[in-house]
Structure formats: C-alpha cells, structure tokens
C-alpha cells in the first residue's frame, strides 16, 4: 500500500462502517480491474539485495521514477516511500524488504492492465539499468537471509516488525522475503459481493498452486513449492487466513465489520505521526481505549480505512475485493493472475458455474487444501478431487467468462489469451516451482544463482 489514509471524519456506528464498504458497489458497466505486482530488486553484479539509502538504492529508484512519471512523492518523514499518480490512477510503493510494487490504475480490460504493467517495467528498467539494478519475479526471496535483507524506513513497517514475532512464527518472512501478484475487483451489491467472496475464498489456494514459485530459501530448496503460501499459515492468524463466516448464505458487510473490529490494530496516524496501537482491538479503540494515550483519541474514518488495509484474509474486503493467494512471478503471470479471476468473477454465467462447482466444499475442505498446497501444489486434492482436475475445470470456466466479455485488442483477440500461461501449467501438470527445482537439480548444478539471470524482469 502506497499511502495511509488521513480522514478526520468522525467514525459512526457499526452500520455506518458497513455502509462505507457497501458504498463501493457499482453498476457492472463500471467494474474495473486493479492489478498489483511486487518484485525483488537486486544488483546484477553479485545478486545482492538493494538497500534503501545510497546512490544506487531503492530511494534512487523512486526518485528516478518520480522524475520520469511526474507522480507525487509520498513521504514518511524525510524519506520518500512511494509515488502516487495525481488523479489516483496508480501508485508505486515499497514493501518492508525493498520489494518494489506497482499498484495499477483501475482499468476496464486485461489488455490495458497488461500494457500498464509492461510500460511500468520498461520505465523502471530505464531507471534501474544505469544503477546496476535488476528485478526478480518470484514468490519468495531465493537467496538472502532475513538479516541480509534491507529494511525500509517506513513507520508502519517498524510497528509491524516489532509486533509480528508476538503473533506468529513467520510474519517477518512474510514482510521481508515474499512477493505477490494481486488483483482488485468490484461488486455490484451486497449479494454480488457475497457470492464473489464465497467463490474466491474457496478457490484462493488453487491460485496459490497455479502460481507457486517459491521453492528456495537461503540458497537451497525449502521442501515447499509455495514457501509464501506456507508463511501465511502462521503469520498473524487473528487477521489472516480463511474466514469461515464468508461461506454463509447470509454473509454481509456487517459480518465482516464485526470480525474486523475484533482484530488488534497496528497504528493510528495523528499529525503525520504513527502511534503503535497493537495492544488494543479496533472495538476497544471505539470504546475509548486510547483516551489519555493520544490526542484526538476518538476514532476517525481514516482509522477505519487504514485498519481494513492491515487485515490479511485470503480475500480482503474493502470497497472492493482483493485476491491475495498468488506468489509473484515472471512478467507473463502479471497478466495471467487477473485474467483468471476476471474470467471467473466478472461474467455472471462463469461466477454461477464456479459457485455451483464448489458448493459442496466445506470450510474444513478449504482449510485442508490451504494446508497441503504449499507442499503439494497441483498434486493436492480438495473435497476428494485432484486439485489438477479442479484447476482445469476452473481455468476452463474462466476462459468462457473472458470470451463472453468479448473485450478485444487491436488484433481482434479477446482477453482469454492471457490464460495461455496457465494452459502451459495445466498441460504439464507442474508448477513453476517444480520447474525451478528441476533446473536446480539439473542444469543449474545445485545453485540458485542462475534464477537471477533467467527470471529477471
């Protein structure tokens, strides 16, 4: 996330908080696609990580991008920590370990989001090349230890770094050593949100399997196909994972609000300063828990917006839905991930088909799949079915949804072309992580160093 919100509007009742989220509902013709992707910055000379400070650094990349794009700098104290397009049409941010992220503009078609990503990478390479910096698209840092990984000077990350070891064993790895591709999608009503949340929550671990690309840690195989997926199994379970109540036929915005306010907070922002609030839940905050600790202790709308951004369920609900299951990956996957979800969720017939195909999956089935996918990938199963069979069915449904959308590029091709990457995965029945392990044990001669050359942006 590039920028935390400051909105001093007094926070209302729980119903008002639910209504704030419901206000994201929009007519189907106004649905948009917002794609985010992260990548690891490294020095091509020795494959070492890029620090924040210095002539060749993360801050230098941000300043160079600011000069090229003309976007507004986002500051934390005296440090530039991101860039925002002046009209809200995109942002650049940095993750805790220096992972460089584009949060794309809300666009109408996958052709546009793919073009946007390619343009971003082209401009970034132009800035990075003279600095000796390149970028790696994988789900997990394949080489660097946690101690070797740089830390970005961002206040919310300082608070999270202190807090994570108190609530899980893998939170720091999540922050500093993982990358993802995500897509943000709209809903038209509470009922539409409910169906999309139910389907995508059930299928999020399928995306983890399809996009698994994190089989290495500290230079060696880690015994997993998606290390990133495994990390999320014990990061901060009060605010992460599968939310069973979203499977209910009556699931509502209010249900999500009631879950969210019982999660511990990370911070509030007052006068540009971050205050550590990890000792209270948002509900306690609403009941006056910070009175006497900070000035302006009464909850504001900006506090609620920021709190929603610090919750990490497999599918995150704000004024839109965020698909959070996939590892980062090579550039073609930046287009494939939103294609998979747009095809499933933005066509009524495809959404209904995916809902029907997963209707008998229980919460226990979904959690068991989530637990097995990091190790087994597409060899896992769900509700008694091989996951590879489910993957083929769901990609097929997605393809039909994309064809039905009939959004064509200049060559007359519809958006289903962006599923070609997944077709290759399904044809082989193996993940990118499987392929990487094959290279490690074969042509790479037991070294992860070649991954920086062969999978760089």
Q: Which class best fits the helix and strand makeup?
A: alpha+beta
Reported for the largest beta sheet, the result is:
10 strands, antiparallel
Give the beta-strand count: 18
**What are the low-pLDDT stretches, counting only 5+ consecutive residues below 50?**
none
Average pLDDT number: 97
Our measurement of the CA-to-CA distance between the termini, rounded to an integer number of angstroms, reads: 22 Å
Net shape: globular
Range of helix content: 40-55%
Q: What fraction strand?
A: 5-15%
Gyration radius, in Å? 21 Å
How many H/I helices? Answer: 17
Structure commentary:
It is a single chain. With 457 residues, the protein is of the alpha+beta class. Helices cover 42% and strands 15% of the residues. It is built from 17 helices and 18 strands. It has helices spanning 14-22, 58-69, 110-128, 155-167, 171-177, 190-210, 227-231, 253-260, 282-286, 301-309, 331-345, 348-357, 363-376, 387-405, 420-428, 432-441, 449-454, and strands at residues 33-43, 48-49, 72-76, 79-84, 91-94, 100-103, 133-136, 181-185, 216-217, 220-221, 240-241, 267-270, 273-276, 312-313, 315-317, 321-323, 381-382, 385-386. Strands 1, 2, 3, 4, 5, 6, 7, 8, 15 and 16 form a 10-stranded antiparallel beta sheet that branches. A two-stranded antiparallel sheet has the order 9-10. It has a two-stranded parallel sheet with strand order 11-14. Strand 1 and strand 2 form a beta hairpin. Helix 6 (190-210) runs parallel beside helix 13. The chain is globular. The two termini are 22 Å apart. The model has no long low-confidence stretch (mean pLDDT 97). Belongs to the glutamate--cysteine ligase type 2 family. EgtA subfamily. It is an enzyme of class 6 (ligase). Its EC number is 6.3.2.2.
């Amino acid at each position: 996330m590039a920028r935390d919100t400051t909105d001093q509007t007094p926070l209302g009742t729980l119903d008002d908080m639910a209504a704030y989220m419901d206000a994201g509902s929009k007519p189907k013709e106004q649905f948009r696609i917002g794609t985010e992707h992260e990548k690891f910055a490294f020095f091509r000379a020795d494959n070492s990580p890029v620090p924040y400070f210095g002539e060749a650094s993360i801050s230098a990349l941000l300043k160079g991008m600011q000069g090229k794009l003309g976007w507004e700098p986002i500051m934390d104290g005296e440090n530039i920590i991101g860039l925002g397009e002046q009209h809200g049409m995109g942002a650049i941010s940095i993750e805790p370990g220096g992972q460089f992220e584009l949060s794309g503009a809300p666009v109408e078609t996958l052709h546009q989001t793919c073009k946007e990503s390619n343009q971003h990478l082209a401009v970034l390479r132009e800035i990075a090349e003279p600095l000796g910096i390149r970028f790696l698209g994988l789900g997990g840092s394949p080489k660097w230890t946690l101690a070797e990984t740089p830390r970005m000077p961002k206040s919310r990350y300082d608070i999270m770094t202190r807090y994570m070891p108190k609530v899980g064993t893998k939170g720091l790895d999540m922050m500093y050593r993982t990358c993802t591709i995500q897509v943000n999608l709209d809903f038209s009503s509470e009922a539409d949100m409910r169906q999309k949340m139910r389907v995508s929550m059930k299928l999020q671990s399928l995306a983890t399997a399809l996009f698994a690309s994190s089989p290495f840690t500290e230079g060696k195989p880690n015994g997993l196909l998606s290390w990133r997926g495994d990390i999320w199994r014990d990061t901060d379970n009060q605010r992460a994972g599968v939310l069973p109540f979203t499977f209910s036929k009556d699931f509502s915005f209010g249900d999500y609000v009631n879950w969210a306010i019982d999660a511990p907070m990370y911070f509030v922002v007052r006068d540009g300063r971050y205050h550590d609030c990890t000792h209270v839940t948002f509900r306690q905050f609403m009941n006056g828990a910070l009175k006497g600790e900070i000035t302006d202790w009464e909850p504001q709308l900006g506090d609620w917006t920021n709190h929603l951004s610090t919750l990490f369920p497999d599918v995150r609900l704000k004024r839109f839905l965020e698909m959070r299951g996939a590892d980062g990956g090579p550039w073609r996957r930046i287009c494939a991930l939103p294609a998979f979800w747009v095809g499933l969720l933005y066509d009524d017939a495809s959404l209904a088909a995916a809902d029907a195909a997963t209707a008998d999956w229980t919460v226990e089935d979904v959690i068991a799949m989530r637990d097995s996918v990091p190790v087994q990938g597409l060899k896992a199963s769900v509700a008694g079915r091989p996951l590879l069979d489910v993957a083929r069915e769901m990609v097929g449904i997605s393809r039909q949804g994309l064809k039905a959308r009939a959004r064509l590029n200049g060559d007359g091709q519809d958006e289903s072309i962006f599923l070609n990457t997944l077709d290759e995965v399904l044809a082989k029945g193996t993940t990118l992580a499987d392929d990487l392990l094959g290279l490690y044990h074969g042509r790479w001669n037991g070294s992860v160093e070649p991954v920086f050359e062969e999978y760089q942006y």
